[in-house]
Amino acid sequence: MQLRIQNLLPTYFEESKKSQSDIWGKDLVFSKGELIKIVAPSGSGKTSLIHFLYGMRNTYEGAVTYDNKLIKQFNQEQLASIRAKKISIVFQDLRLFTDQTVEKNLLIKHHLQPFQQENKIKEMTERLGISSKLESQCGQCSYGEQQRIAIIRSLLQPFDFLLLDEPFSHLDNDNAVKAMELILEEAALRNACVLFADLERFNPYPQTRLLKL
Amino acid sequence: MSNSFHIIKPLLLKAGSHSSRILSFAGLATGVLLLFCCVQMYFNLQQLTKKNSIRKNGYDYIAIRKSVTNETMGQKKLNMFSSGEIADIRKQPFADAVAPLVANNFRVQLSAGSLFDFQTDFFIEAIDNDFIDTLPDSFLWSEGDATVPMIISSDFIELYNTAFAPGYGLPQLSDATISTVVFTIICYDRNQIPVEFKGNIVAQSDRLNSFLVPKTFLDWANKKFGGAVATDVSRLFIKTKDANNASFLKYIDSKHYRINKDKTLFGRAKQIMQGVVTGLGIFGLMVVVLALMLFSFYLQLMIARSKDNLQLLLTLGYAPGWLSKKMSGQFIPVYIYIVLIALVLTQLFQFLFHKYVMYDRPELSTMLHISVFILAVLLTVLTIVANFRMVKKILYRFGMNQL
User: Which residues in chain A have their CB less than 8 angstroms from residue B8's CB?
Assistant: First the structure.
């Protein structure tokens, strides 16, 4: 299982970006088991990159391939299938059903492609300190709590690649460490590759590769 | 994903206006009921008219002639059928066979001979034997025979016995007697020289309103006394499976031919009733289409209200095909209930129609025609497929635009 980018550059970026980046314009292969850290300042295209890898946007030159198949050529059923089974994500803007309860948000993902027993949900929420919020409406939780909900949600499915787009931006250090530990455990369980995009270096993350965007 | 729909269902089927949903369902039910009733009524009509038109050998024999108008009066040719017109009639799908009724082209007189003093100028006609309803073996003539067998219309006997004979003091004739009467047929050639033949009535016809002689005799006599085989035809007989057939009546009307209205009166009524039923059927179909459109708008509105949730579900990995199937599948029971209710009501109406309007006529069935059931299945499948495709199309559009 490989995720590969070749000579990738957003259409709205100038060519000069290629010379300043470890990713834009390069040929990179991400394999299972790797822990990739992508460090980038604001506006350098982190979210664009994550969206390209997730098949949400096609506004780029170059190629993104999953298992040697161009993601751009995937139809919507194929995209749905890899999103349910192969690639999971934590969006920077979280994308939760804010008018639903925390538990419902998690069950919606769990039922899509169950990877663990349902009681694992409770255990994860306890570890990240949001178990008391299970019955609360998501929209009424703090942004930090919502980030932890989004993280747990991303871990409730099978995946080969986990895409993290600034997942700890609203978490204190202690909660970020707990969340990272949970992510690493779940990734190890699946021997998955984690692509962690953040503004700066996050120490508790034992990356195998560091790339500057 | 099989058990996950109940989790996401509240996110998707956000109830729209309750009244608009009820309205669209009621409209659909009304349209479907109307459509089923019309289809059933159409088949009822077919059954009833089919039974009514059955003849002994399964055919109607209809005489057609041209209308004699003030304009065509005196112009013999215009009131005759040309060979082209006869050929055109033969080509029509309703005409199983066509035969001209050939008349004499020389002067003929008929005398009752020894029985009573009666002599009159007269006419004789001939037609293919296939068209004669009462054809005895003795209805044959070959050159040299002195006796000519005749078949006459039973109406003429009736008129003679009830009107002519009493008025003139002549004896009334029974069926048995009439076959024993020896008539004299006097044929005059172009020089008015008479040649006599004996004539005896060998049968009476309910179908052919004429005095018929064997075709072999008339062809011979026309040539011998009139100088040529007669080609002018003023009456044609058409053999058709159903004289009440709409296309037959339409053809006759379009050509301004005249026929015996009694034989086609039922067909005229059937034509009108079929027109009414077809009109109602089209109306029913329109109601069904409108109701389906209304329901489709309702579904689209519901999807539009759930657009954000749907887009997020697609982003998370829910497949658009599966979602479409599940969403449109929610309404399958409703469609089935509507069609079933309409079927039950149509069945009830058919029962009441058969029992209390048609008084259990055997040609009708209390059960609905199989076509109504086929239509019900088709309509249900069509509705389900159309809605599934519509929802899927919308979801694919959402999927393309997830940001």
Answer: 108
Give Cα separations from B166 to B161, B170, B173, B336 (angstroms). Answer: 7, 6, 11, 73
Taking each helix axis as running N to C, give the angle between helix A143-154 and helix A102-112, from 0 to 180 degrees, rounded to the nearest 10: 20
CA distance B76 to B142: 31
Measured in Å, how far apart are chain B's first and last C-alpha atoms?
Answer: 24
Measured from the Cβ of residue B51, the count of other Cβ atoms closer than 10 Å reads: 12
Read off the tokens for B107.
């002067």
User: Please, are residues B156 and B131 in contact by the beta-carbon 8 Å criterion?
Assistant: no
Residue of A nearest to B322 (CA): A77
Q: Please list every residue in chain B whose beta carbon sits closer than 8 Å to the beta carbon of residue A112.
A: 1, 4, 316-318
Cβ distance A84 to B403 less than 8 Å, yes or no, reads no
Using alpha carbons, select from B21, B65, B79, B36 the residue that is nearest to residue B237. B65
In contact, B240 and B94? CB cutoff 8 Å: yes
B4 touches chain A (CB under 8 A): yes
- Round to whole Å and give the CA distance between A151 and A158: 14
A173 in contact with B at a CB cutoff of 8 Å?
A: no
For chain B of 403 residues, list the mean pLDDT of each consecutive stretch of 10: 74 71 82 88 78 55 82 75 88 89 90 73 90 88 92 87 84 83 88 90 87 92 84 84 79 84 65 78 81 79 87 94 90 90 95 88 88 92 90 86 64
What is the ipTM score, two decimals? Answer: 0.94
Residue B64: in which H helix or E strand, if any?
strand B60-66
* Residue A80: CB atoms within 10 Å: 26
- Residue window 277-316, chain B: list those with CB within 8 Å of chain A: 309, 312-316
Q: CA A18, CA B152: separation in Å to the nearest integer? A: 111
Cβ neighbors of A201 (< 8 A, separation 6 or more) are A37, A39, A210
> Which of B3, B315, B399 is the closest to A95 by Cβ?
B315
DSSP state of B272: H
On whether any CB of chain B is under 8 Å from the CB of A100, the answer is yes
